């Protein structure tokens, strides 16, 4: 176990850089912040490339040293420096990004969530976590959405990224792929021409698209969908938060 005390150490600089998308792409890795995420990764069989912990936390979790390729004991100052949380838990780990995260393994099947320009990291992470809870197979994030492996999204996912297939991709192409196998693709739209979500029965393989927080789905994607859905509201609220809407729709469409 190597002990580090300076924020100017090269290892520390490298971990700090993982807060940026550029560094994550260049290294093919990202940082898990907190014992729960590290534990979830280990349970899922994800290789821990490096474990970073304070003296106190490594003493509480001595098993971590044997779980990683390398373990580093650091100061609380370093831990605060490499994470973007106000009060870090004192444990972090570096893991690999999903391999290429561009194409699914095998034929398309199951329920999939597509995110069109969803920009709030908390919303993205919450929807991924909800997709996991609703039994979805995978999530595809289109251009101009929050990065799936940014620190705030990772915290919000709470480890659900280890239970789903996760991709960044061209949503029009993904829609075409689903329609090619006669699997429905549902958009979401506040429009009289849209269908009440309770009236559709998608079967086992389908995709659901959630759009931007303020603008909704793009017109291009709305024109490609099988049907566009809306959620009837009894009250006077103008709209629902996109993550709340996604949760209602995902659990309804999977008939859990």
TrEMBL record:
<keyword id="KW-0489">Methyltransferase</keyword>
<dbReference type="InterPro" id="IPR029026">
    <property type="entry name" value="tRNA_m1G_MTases_N"/>
</dbReference>
<dbReference type="InterPro" id="IPR013123">
    <property type="entry name" value="SpoU_subst-bd"/>
</dbReference>
<comment type="similarity">
    <text>Belongs to the class IV-like SAM-binding methyltransferase superfamily. RNA methyltransferase TrmH family.</text>
</comment>
<dbReference type="InterPro" id="IPR051259">
    <property type="entry name" value="rRNA_Methyltransferase"/>
</dbReference>
<dbReference type="GO" id="GO:0008168">
    <property type="term" value="F:methyltransferase activity"/>
</dbReference>
<dbReference type="InterPro" id="IPR029064">
    <property type="entry name" value="Ribosomal_eL30-like_sf"/>
</dbReference>
<dbReference type="Pfam" id="PF00588">
    <property type="entry name" value="SpoU_methylase"/>
</dbReference>
<feature type="domain" description="RNA 2-O ribose methyltransferase substrate binding">
    <location>
        <begin position="31"/>
        <end position="101"/>
    </location>
</feature>
<dbReference type="InterPro" id="IPR053888">
    <property type="entry name" value="MRM3-like_sub_bind"/>
</dbReference>
<protein>
    <submittedName>
        <fullName>RNA methyltransferase</fullName>
    </submittedName>
</protein>
<dbReference type="InterPro" id="IPR029028">
    <property type="entry name" value="Alpha/beta_knot_MTases"/>
</dbReference>
<dbReference type="GO" id="GO:0032259">
    <property type="term" value="P:methylation"/>
</dbReference>
<keyword id="KW-0808">Transferase</keyword>
<dbReference type="Pfam" id="PF22435">
    <property type="entry name" value="MRM3-like_sub_bind"/>
</dbReference>
<dbReference type="InterPro" id="IPR001537">
    <property type="entry name" value="SpoU_MeTrfase"/>
</dbReference>
